[in-house]
Each structure stands twice: as C-alpha cells, then as structure tokens.
Fold this protein.
Amino acid sequence: MSNHPSITIEGQRIAVDGPPYVIAEMSANHNGNIETAFKIIEAAKQAGADAVKLQTYRPDTITLNCDSEDFRIHGGLWDGRTLYELYQEAHMPWEWHAPLFAHARELGITIFSSPFDNTAVDLLEDLNAPAYKIASFEAVDPALIKYVASTGKPMIISTGMADVQEIQEAIDAAREGGCKELAILHCVSGYPAPAADYNLRTIPDMIKRFGLVTGLSDHTLDNTTAITSVAMGASIIEKHFTLDRSGGGPDDIFSLEPADLAALCRDCNTAWQALGQVDYGRQSSELSNVKFRRSLYFVKDLKAGDVITADAVRSVRPGFGAAPKDLGDIIGRRIRSEVVACTPVLVKNLY
C-alpha cells in the first residue's frame, strides 16, 4: 500500500504516485447556450479529461446588484462592468445542472462543481455530486467550506491569493466540517496569469507543509506550466476549457481549445510516466544498444608472445572487447595467440 496522501473521486484514486487527474473547467464558456455546454462535456471526454467542472451560483448568491465603485471592475478583461452584470452573463442556470450531470454520466466522464453558497451545495447534493471544489475567492469563507465539508464528499480547495495562514485556516475549516478527503491546488488568480507568477517550486513545499494531495489550477495561456507542475508533484491539473477561444465569452480568451486539452492530457501523463522512480539500472530500451558502447580493440596485428604496446590498442565502438577502464592493466601484457587488427581485446587471451 502507498503511504502517499490520496483522495478518491468516483473510484479513481488521485495521488502523486498515480497519473495526473485532469479537470476541464467549463466556467462561463457555455456562453448562455446549453447546447454549447453539452458539447463542452463531449469534447472534454474526447480529449481525455478525467472530469469536467461547473460553477454553481446565481448573480444574487455571489454579489449584490449594486453599481457603486466597490462593485465595479477596473482593468483587465472585464473593465467597466459591475460584478452583478458579469455574473448575470456568466452564471449557469440552475435548471441546466440536472441534464448536464445526466449527459456527463451517460458519456462516462466525472462531473462536479464549485458551489458559491449553501443553496448551491443543496442543489448539487440533490444531483449526488461526487466531489466539490472551493474556488480561490471563496477559500477565505470558512462557513461555506464547513457546509461543503458536511456533505462528506471529497473536496478540492484552490489557494489563489491565499497566504500560508489562510490556506491552513481553509484546511482547518474543511476538517472541522467533517471532510476526510481533501486536496489543495496551487493557483494564481490572474486571468490570464503569466507563467513567471506561478513559482512552481511552491508545490513541493505545499506537499511537505500541509501533507495533502496537491495540484495546480492553471490560468496561463499554454500547457507548459501545467506539464512542468507534474514534475514538481502536482497530482491534479485544472484548466479552463472552451470550444472556441474566440467565442466572445467572459472566460474564452484564457481557456484551452479541444486540441490543446487533448495535448495537455497526453503530455501531463507522459511527464508523470517519465518521472518514474530512482533507478540507476539498465532499462529495457537500452539493452540492444549496450554492444555499441566503447571497448578495447587491437589496431595492429600481433604474434603470440608479443607485448601489447600503447599503439596496439584503442578504445572504440563497439563494445565486444575489454572495458576501456582496463587499458592501463592491459598494456605491457603478452598475447597468448596471434591476433589481427580490428579484433576485440579479451582478457582470457592475455597473460
């Protein structure tokens, strides 16, 4: 049995000694069309993602309908809009959840969501959601975390913008609420975020510090950061996913398209396989090439009884002769029987 921390979602064990668990985040990329949402689930399955994730809120459960400066966005992708306007456009109607859950289950891909208030948790519980994600912006809301934890389902908490103390407080809230299976995601809450902001060396520190399954919520524009994170110990990779990056939705521009997601699933798995384990032994793919390593060969004809001189032997490919490291011991010895140039030096023929 492995002693690595793990969680299990719908029978799939997630841990550092298993392949990365890839989550396709639909977010607002349905763009107000349920048929697009269906197609995103289908494309995520086809690309090889392990799960597709929704976001469950209404504009009035996540913010207030207010246009004061506190509620207005300045700069970035959504400059000038109020939070309520943004979430009115971006939210997924609650009546869509049941058909989307049913469609994902029919396709055989795990589906779960990020709830943003208790009523969202209740809706998702009615749909028997197999897990829950706490978004970075909600990681400082212990009451919500405890309510999600009370479901007894596996939880994933994204840690964007949270410092060490806030991460620990979120973990404590989850444990106090009854969560037994918990994972955390290193995250930078920029949309998009530059790779240089990710500081992936934080991941092994998080694993050591918190002792939890740890992954990456990646908001960069390509896959390099996510693939690299696997080498740092990331067990979960979450990326926003869309059918068309130019689709005009609020999250489309920093989301992966289907070919990109397929590459992410493939390359993260390849990165994990390449990590392997500490092993200095000869690998199966090397066995046929051992004979091409260097060894000692005679480069001139010698008669029985001749002394081997330095100009009579060279270290060359292939590897059927004595090891090059034995050259010093071989020079000065005598030949038992006649040899010709291009013959391997064999210690048994020397005295």
About this structure: Residues 284-349 form a domain with the Type Iii Antifreeze Protein Isoform Hplc 12 fold (CATH 3.90.1210.10). The chain has eleven helices and twelve strands.
